[in-house]
Each structure stands twice: as C-alpha cells, then as structure tokens.
Amino acid sequence: MPGHHHPHDHDHDHGPDGDISAEEMLTSIDAVDIGVRVKALEELLARKGLIDPQALDAVVDYYEHKVGPRNGARVVARAWADPAYKQRLLTDATAAIAELGFSGAQGEHMVVIENTDSVHNLVVCTLCSCYPWPVLGLPPVWYKSMPYRSRVVRDPRSVLEEFGTFLPETTEIRVWDSNSEIRYMILPRRPPGTEGLSEDALAALVTRDSMIGVSEALTPGGAA
Amino acid sequence: MNSVHDCGGDDGFGRIIPDGYDGTEPVFKSEWERRMCALFMATIVGGLFTDEDFRQSRERLEPSRYLTRSYYEQWWFAVARLMVEKGVISPAEYRAEIARMDAGTGTGAEARS
C-alpha cells in the first residue's frame, strides 16, 4: 500500500481485531483435510459451550436411523387404503402427516401431489436441496446434484428414463420446485394387483424414489 | 443471489445416477460428513444463524468451488464463514485449533486437557 503507513504490514482485509477476513480464512485452510476442518470447528464450538458433542451424536442417529422414507411409505400406504385419509392428505398434507406422528424441521409446510394415469409429478429443489425430512429423511446424493437440479426442469422425461421410468407419450409431466417454505412429496399411483393387501404390505411397495417421483411404486412380487 | 447454484435448465451436467443404481445408498459416505451434518443441525437449532443465513452463505461460495466441492464440504464453507462473520469464532483461533490437530494425530485429543 504505497503512501499508506499501516501499523502492520499485511496485504489482506482486516477483521475487527486486525485478524484476517472470513474469506481469507476459508482460503488459507482450504487444503487442510476436510475431516480436520470439521473436527476443529466442532471442538472450538464445544469448548465455548455452544454445542454439546453428545447431543450431536443423538441428533445424527435420529436422522440417520429413525427418520427416513419408511415414514413417507406409511403415509402413502394409508392414503391408498383409506380414501378419507387420502382426501385429508391432499387437502392439508402437514396435518394429515402429523396424524401419523410425523412432523418437525424441514416439513412444516407439506404439500402432497397425486400421480394419476394422465399426470405424473416429480419434485426437485433447483436452488439447493430442500427436501421433506420428516417423511423422507435426508436426501440422496443425486437429488442434491447439479445434473438432477439442472436437467429435471427442462427435460424431465429423459430424467425419468434414466431412472428406468418409461411413461406413455400422452402422460403430462409436472415438476415441482421446492423452496425453503414448501416441501413436496408425491403420492405414487397404487400398483395393480394390490387389492386387499394390508397397509404394511402396501408400504413395502413404496420406495423413496417413488415419493420424489423419479420412479413408480413397486408391484407385488415383481419389478417396478 | 445470481450465481451457479441457480442451475435450473442449464445443459451439460451429464448423468444423474451411477451405473448399477438400485435406489439405495448410505446417507453419509464418511464420518466427517456425518459430523458436518450434526454440526449444522446443532448450530442452526442453537440459534447461531438462520436458514436464510445458511442458504446465502452457501450461495456465496465462489463458482469454481461450488461446482467441484462435495455437498457437505459446501456446508462446511457455509457454516465456517457464518461463525466468523457473526463473531462466534475468530479466524486466528480456528486456525490455531487446526494447527494443534495437525501437530497431533489428527484427532485433536492432545490439545484437550
């Protein structure tokens, strides 16, 4: 900095205490192993009493093992088995899902869309990774990826085909872009040959991907 | 914010799923991803930042990094930036913590009494 006398001789932006900026910090430790970067942040925040490592373990265990697409499958199975429930689900999804005991963060404003013989629906979050955690758990890698987010809104039929889902040319395809408020879940078509099955047996046919809409529900004892 | 994250309709990103995809995959590919997810949940529930703060911080990741870093590494960038910008931690103490861990076995156990 010519002509400028500064108490110290750094050539970077200064934080409030003469420290480097957040951007510079991120760059300066960018090459450190990501496991170390994460662990160091956790240790630092724990030492300040801002987080509790034991509680962290419990939170992850909850989302990894106790919340997942089996919750959504139970909602779908109930809707297939009980027309009155299905009506409530399509009218006020958040309340109908809560009837089965599922609610919480990232699922405060749920909308459920029904697939029919004439209209097939799928869900994306083009801007990031919004996803209905209480019914589907944490999103799969592909849902958060650029290839899915970019292509599904422009060429959904090719995306469906990549997932092995081939629909008649006459089927209309609609894509729902999630956001931080509204989270969508698809109610797949009930497969043929499932009359009289119990809700448990129905739920076993409901895959995570069928509730995102990239595939259909499984058929009993056969291929999707 | 207008940047590479706003990718709806863009061409050229290629295939979505790997060959042999069977509809299942683990939620986390490694332990650090699990810890990063937990750290995010703990800090946002603890009120250290909001959903909007987090989204904006992630979108501020420069395009070359946004396009090449894994999902949970993007989360690290977003949370670490917010912790500094909100004055929760200082760059100096964070870098010192990392240096302590690098000097040890990588577990950081030596730095704790």
From TrEMBL, chain A:
Reaction(s) catalysed (UniProt annotation): an aliphatic primary amide = an aliphatic nitrile + H2O
Keyword terms: Iron, Lyase, Metal-binding
Gene3D superfamilies: Nitrile hydratase alpha /Thiocyanate hydrolase gamma (3.90.330.10)
Biased composition regions of type Basic and acidic residues, renumbered to the chain: 8-17
Chain sites annotated for binding Fe(3+): 125, 128-130
Domain (Nitrile hydratase alpha/Thiocyanate hydrolase gamma): residue spans on this chain: 34-214
Broadest EC class assigned to this enzyme: lyase
Similarity comment: Belongs to the nitrile hydratase subunit alpha family.
Ranges for region Disordered: 1-21
The protein's name in its UniProt record: nitrile hydratase
GO molecular function, one term: nitrile hydratase activity
EC number: 4.2.1.84
TrEMBL record, chain B:
Pfam families listed in its UniProt record: NHase_beta_N
Domain of life of the organism encoding this protein: Bacteria
Domain Nitrile hydratase beta subunit-like N-terminal: 1-101
InterPro entries noted in UniProt: CN_hydtase_beta-like_N (IPR049054), CN_hydtase_beta_C (IPR042262), Elect_transpt_acc-like_dom_sf (IPR008990)
UniProt-recorded name of the protein: Nitrile hydratase subunit beta
Organism taxonomic ancestry: Bacteria, Pseudomonadati, Pseudomonadota, Alphaproteobacteria, Hyphomicrobiales
